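step: validate -> pass
step: tokenize input -> pass
step: predict -> running
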Amino acid sequence: MPAPSPSSSAAPFGAHDYQIRCTPAEAPREVNIRARAALPLRVGDLYTIGHRDRLCDLVVEEISLLAGGDWNARCQVSNSHPL
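step: predict -> pass
step: emit ->
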């Protein structure tokens, strides 16, 4: 029998345990992705996220391992496209 999925109280950043912060919020140039239980991203990985009315292409530049198994990925926005 599969293990039960974590409840919302056990996963503070949502079902996949990610928190995404864009800086500056209105036109991001840097994005930080933090997670607790998820596998860390890797330097050089490419991602696209939706932010407000735009799609932002990201490149992972640095990974920081934090206390308790958390990690933070600092990403640069390489390109931004209107939706």
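step: describe -> Confidence is low (pLDDT under 50) at residues 1-12.
step: cleanup -> pass
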